[in-house]
Amino acid sequence: SNTPSVMSFDLDVAIPSLFNYRTRELLRNVKKREFEYTTCRTKARYLLVASKGNEDIVKAKIEQAISGQGIVPENIPVFLALARAAHPQSETRKNSQLDAITCDITGRLEETNRQAEASWEAVKAIRRATGQSSSDDGSE
Question: How confident is the model at residue 28, as a pLDDT?
């Protein structure tokens, strides 16, 4: 007999979900974002290793940067590599570009602050040398 002993059918079955529609949608978006960031991180690592060399240092710098601990001017190339590795118009690219700009602004602010402190120390030294009271400045 040529009759198969097992028959198979495709049948849609509705299974109640543990999460409502909005929660499922949020979970999908989170998963998509995680995939986007992971893919971007891998591509950025390849870009940085090709230009800078040591893979362990590059991995550490990327981890430091994405953990939020890396908003320092030295990590601008890391954030730019992450932006370059991300898809155009993606959240990852936008955030990486913003982080690079934030690193740049932070570095400029720190440098300006150092210059202001040095200038203020020079003013104090001149006042001491000329015998002027430094109590007029309100800082002591």
Answer: 84
- Compute the distance between CA of residue 83 and CA of residue 44 in angstroms, rounded to an integer: 8
| Of the candidates 60, 137, 66, 71, the residue with the CA atom closest to the CA atom of residue 107 | 71
| Predicted local confidence at residue 91, as pLDDT | 87
DSSP H helical ranges for 19-136: 21-52, 55-66, 76-85, 91-130
Is pLDDT above 90 for 18? no
Average pLDDT, the chain: 85
Q: Distance (Å, rounded) from C-alpha 137 to C-alpha 140?
A: 7
Between CA 57 and CA 50 the distance in angstroms is 13
Give whole-number Cα distances, 61 to 18, 42, 109, in Å.
Answer: 39, 13, 22
Please report, for residues 27, 39, 76, 78, 113, the alpha-carbon distance to residue 87 in angstroms, rounded to integers and kept in the order given.
Answer: 21, 10, 19, 16, 36
